Amino acid sequence: MRRTNTCGELRSSDLGKEVCLQGWVRFSRDHGGVAFIDLADRYGITQVVFDPEDLPEGTDAGRLDAAIKTFTRESCVQINGVVRKRVEGTEDARNPTGEVEVLITDAELLNKSALPPFELGDQKEGVLPDEDIRMRYRYLDLRRTDMVQSMVFRSKLVHLARQYLEQNGFLEIETPMLGRSTPEGARDYIVPSRVHPGTFYALPQSPQLFKQMLMVASMDRYYQVARCFRDEDSRKDRQPEFTQLDMEMSFVDMKDIQDMIEGMMSYVWKGLYNEELKTPFPHIAYRDAMERFGSDKPDMRYGLEFVKLTDVVRDAPYKIFQNVIAEGGIVAGMNLKKDIAGDRIGRNDRDRYIHYAKKVGLGGLTWMWVENGKLESNITKYFTPEILENIKTTMNAEEGDVLFLIAGPWKATYEGGGFVRKKIAEDLGLIPENEFQFFWMDECPMFEIDPVSGKYDSFHHPFVLPQNDLDDDYVGGACFDLCLNGNELGSGSLRIHNADLQRAVFHKLGLDDERIEENFGFFVEALSYGAPPHGGIAIGVDRLCAILLNKDTIREVIAFPKNKRAVSLLDGSPEKVSDEKLEELQIISLAGDIDFSDVEDLSEE
RNA sequence: GCCCUGGUAGUGUAGCGGCCUAUCAUGAAGCCCUGUCGAGGCUUCGACUCGGAUUCGAAUUCCGACCAGGGCGCCA
User: What is the structure's pLDDT at A33?
Assistant: First the structure.
């Protein structure tokens, strides 16, 4: 008999039904006579009961008892039975199936489970095994309700996004996984070609060039749930392979792209939560984000903003600030108001944050506080009363408030300050949970200039449309990031669609004609065949899911992730391949197992 | 490449120079129990990541390796 229902399905309306359930034994409780089994699958848990005193006529109770004795934890089993009401007072309100149970009339062990290495039941926080054990047995970890819910959530989210995009005329088009290695950007994963020994494909870091060429190809609106690969070190929000919801549109401006994403996110939101998502998302300019929050992806759910003090302290005879300002740096401060933070930061905390500030690239922190109406600090002697008063007014500092000041080069200082801001907010519990704040970070520069070498580097990537003449002092780029709660979810831009302009940008980045031709010749050529004005965006699916589900790491929303060192603890990859395979590819490995004994022997002689 | 944190029964933990033939919980095995739901009761089983060093004595201190996680660099 096939299963008639899942383990999450049966309700009071099914009373009396003869059913067949198949699933896994999550818990069992044997009371000596009557025995209960929590039968689980991904849909839920149904209590099934072996009740020897209440079996139908002709049932072989002994055989049934023997079968149920074999039902060890996590074994895969089948039971036949009758849906009945639970004994009055024993209903389980926490479980949707909790009003009913299934009286077992027949039972069969489908496949016995080895003893599970950890417990899969829905336990309280903190009883999960270490992550490496979960990863080693990921197929068991995924049986847990929490992981099932994450997988369901992710599937639903991606499905809703697809639905919306299809409704809006987007075509889902697959781009190659085997492509060309590019010199810029992250390290590529390399795939050797057997047919052309000595040559290699690269796995895509993103479908960027192909989706742009799809626009040249008149596809107009493209999307793809695209797997991307980067051979760089992992973080909790970075995996060697990850998924992007990748899109490109022709004949659009930045607002068109943003409107489309806002529409899509609203649709997804409605589908997931049955709630309206507030749109349009607010915008913040790159410069403002840095100068107010010390980050290009600021978490704006809590206050703690920096205030510029460069002009206020310009004439203070305090050496450190004077030097900083003379070198074109900035001074800024943050007011930790008495009621939210000032009261809770003592002397030890201030020292701790100074230590932390040094770790994140700041020279240090200067602390000040308002006591008896005056700014106090170990360095107030270097400031005139007028300047102190001016700082106090500019910072809106009141009795009991605590200020910290940062000083140094613009970018590094605000970035460092941003880390301190975040740390303080975390320590003081100022970050709200279950509040989701999307916004656009825009008005970005086209290039970043390396302060040491003076070399130009792309702020986003070399295909962004410049907003003004490339020879101007400041060149803006038509690019923007979608941010959520202090995370970068994705970045989009208008692209260069003119071959000459694309070449000019490459030149600006230091590539000569030969390099351009060699690495991007095919692409620039494509632009020359009437490429339409176009632009697009890619949204990090893993990050989006992780943030919405309040997970610390994207590994929680990826079925089979790699660990910190890019190793799959489940299948043991990456692994050596046989010499025969290497030979066929005409590849010799320099790693590890070359026998250098001859060389050593020579040196000893 | 670098920095930080951690590694104790199957799992999660306590212990942090001698009170350690190492705590507690869970689990597993056995027995008891007819309404539980992470059932309960009783009994039993099971561990200091590895290699050096210090010491009369090391789970505990030090050094190194390995493993896991967080971060810097890197991620156009």
Answer: 87
H/E stretch holding A403 reads strand A402-408
CB atoms within 10 A of CB A84: 17
**Cα A364 to Cα A361: distance, rounded to the nearest angstrom:** 8
Beta pairing, strands A171-172 & A221-229:
parallel
Q: Which of residues 183-222 of A touch strand B (CB under 7 A)?
A: 184-187, 205-206, 208
Residue A599: per-residue pLDDT: 41
Cα-based torsion angle of the residue sequence A394, A397, A403, A407 in order, rounded to the nearest 10 degrees:
10
Instruction: Name the protein residue, with chain letter, whose CA is nearest the C1' of B76.
Output: A185
Query: What whole-number distance in Å separates Cα of residue A331 and Cα of residue A323?
Result: 11
Which amino acid, one-letter code, is at A341? Answer: A
Q: What is the largest CA-CA distance in chain A?
A: 100
- pLDDT score recorded for residue A303: 86
Structural domains for chain A? 12-111 (2.40.50.140), 148-283+441-557 (3.30.930.10), 302-431 (3.30.1360.30)
End-to-end CA, chain A: 78
Instruction: Count CA within 13 A, CB hemisphere, residue A437.
Output: 16
Q: Which nucleotide's C1' sits nearest to the alpha carbon of A457?
A: B76
Q: Which chain A residues 563-592 have CB under 7 A to strand B?
A: 563-565, 567, 569
Whether CB of A98 is under 7 Å from strand B: the answer is yes
C1' of B12 to CA of A35 (Å): 28
Nearest partner of A222 among A170, A269, A270, judged by Cα? A170
| pTM of this structure | 0.93
Alpha helices for A25-144 (secondary structure H): 61-69, 131-136, 138-141
pLDDT digits (tens, 9 = 90+) for A87-136: 999 999 999 999 999 999 999 999 999 999 999 988 655 578 999 999 99
pLDDT on residue A602: 36
ipTM score here? Answer: 0.94
CA A592 to chain centre: 34
Distance A89 CA to B30 C1' (A): 33
Listed as ranges, residues in chain A with pLDDT below 50 are 594-605
Residues 505-564 of A, Cβ under 7 A from nucleic strand B: 552-553, 563-564
> Is A469 exposed, middle or buried, given 0-12, 13-18 or 19+ CB atoms closer than 10 A?
exposed
User: How long is chain A?
Assistant: 605
Distance CA A207 to C1' B14 in A:
52
For residue A423, what are the contacts with CB-CB under 8 A and spacing of at least 6?
A353, A356
pLDDT of the residue at A514 = 93
Alpha helix locations (H) across A549-591?
A: 579-585
Q: What per-residue confidence (pLDDT) applies to A532? A: 98
Chain B positions with a protein C-beta closer than 7 Å: 1, 10-13, 26-29, 32-40, 67-76
Query: Minimal CA–CA distance to A320: which of A369, A366, A387?
Result: A366
**Strand B contacted by A88 CB (< 7 A):** no
> Is A52 (CB) below 7 Å from strand B?
yes
H helices within A168-253, ranges in order?
A: 208-216
pLDDT value, residue A378:
86
Distance set, CA A432 to CA A279, A415, A437 (Å): 20, 22, 11
Tokens 């070359």 found at: A594
Q: Decide: CB of A61 under 7 A of nucleic strand B.
A: no
